[in-house]
Amino acid sequence: MDSHPPSDSESDSDDETTTPQTLAFPPVTRQHILNCSYHSWYPKYKPITPKSRLIPLTSPFLDYLRADSIILPDDDVDQQQQTEWDSDSGIFSKDEDEASDDDDVDILSGWHDLHATIGATIAELGGKVMPKLNWSAPKDATWMNANTMECRTPNEIYLLLKSSDFVTHDLEHAFDDTEALAEQRKAEDIPFHLVLRKSFQMNPSMEFRCFVRGRKLLALCQRDLNHFDFLAPMQHKLSSLIQQFFDVRLRDSFEDENFVFDCYVPAPYTRVWLVDVNPWAPRTDPLLFSWMEILGIPEPMGGGEDEEDLSREEVEGEFVRLKMADPTKDPRVAEALRLAREDAAKDALLDIASLSSMSEDDEVEEDFSGLPELRLVGKNDPEAWSFNTPKYSAHKLPRDVVDASQSGEGLREFAREWEAVLEKRRREDVEGGSSGEE
Ligand SMILES: Nc1ncnc2c1ncn2[C@@H]1O[C@H](COP(=O)(O)OP(=O)(O)OP(=O)(O)O)[C@@H](O)[C@H]1O
Ligand SMILES: [Mg+2]
């Protein structure tokens, strides 16, 4: 779930001096929020979702996640790292007393089995996973983990989850802003799950957020806020592909009429994966749109029976085939893709400029009328100026802590260091508060 602070576009919409209207959302129900939880939709959409595992969470683990302190359980690997690293005189040096304090406490009390299951699941998924809770991934806490959400050990997962405000939102505020009565908003009834997704190299330019109202795909946009030259010539083909995917896979089967889904189009751009489902609510970031704009989009035409039957014929195996010409059949595109693939390091920034030479004839042959708008980041859009800078600047931290997080010196030591910073801040807050200073 998007638990970020309101996006700029939302704040703009709230500003009554510039935008006099109010956001006309239908009431957000508790059930809608639950329907968007990974554990609710994943079983149904498993064949079209990247490989994931759901681990039900127990109260002792949830208590651990909710606790302020960031103490990580000991494990053999970390113990080894600690021993190796203690021989240096780095910033994580700790004295004997400190060590024995931590080691006396059984952090895993009540969730030894869960810890083991998490470790085994990481191994089952190939050793690298992307974690999230029911709605949110810890995207705001990646500085804790060498700037990635990819985790190889349970401790890396705990550190990310415990450091993320987005995850805290799942734990404490999932039903905020719903029409549920106060007593129905309690988190106790939520079947919390840890979602572990097998990590794979995703090309950020091919991730899209799609807005569905009244079971119609209204509009879609890039998820990554960088400009990619090669997307514009593919724009219609992509929205047609995603429209077909939606018609066949989601339109009639998702519980609610209104929702926002995220999808991924892997090369060679003939199929679509479902990545996430988000609530039709202000808490979901509309990215390149504003909610005001989306709520104002008129009902699109189409979506009749014939169209549905046609689309269903296109289902092949576990994904939807592109009905139109495969862009990779164009030798120039194929060559660009081959070159791009040769250098895996370039994957995330595929500069397949020759895609822009995709034949104009394709555009003429195919009828793209009636497709929803796929909005892209333009070359000169302000969004594109933040190329490669951290997105969640609110979470910027002292330099030494960030360096420590990336040093690979051992997570438990890093957690201790971070704990010390938090403690210092708490003390300063108390002192500042008692002296009446800001
Ligand atoms: N299996 C995977 N392998 C690699 N990266 C992944 C995988 N699944 C998701 N990601 C990356 O993680 C990002 C965040 O995932 P996800 O959309 O589930 O988080 P979220 O918290 O729901 O985000 P939002 O708040 O925008 O809805 C995705 O945009 C994608 O870049
Ligand atoms: Mg989401």
From TrEMBL:
Cross-referenced InterPro entries: CDC123 (IPR009772)
GO cellular component: cytoplasm
Organism ancestry: Eukaryota, Fungi, Dikarya, Ascomycota, Pezizomycotina
Family: Belongs to the CDC123 family.
Short name of one Pfam family: D123
Annotated stretches, region: Disordered: 1-24, 73-102
The protein, known as: Cell division cycle protein 123
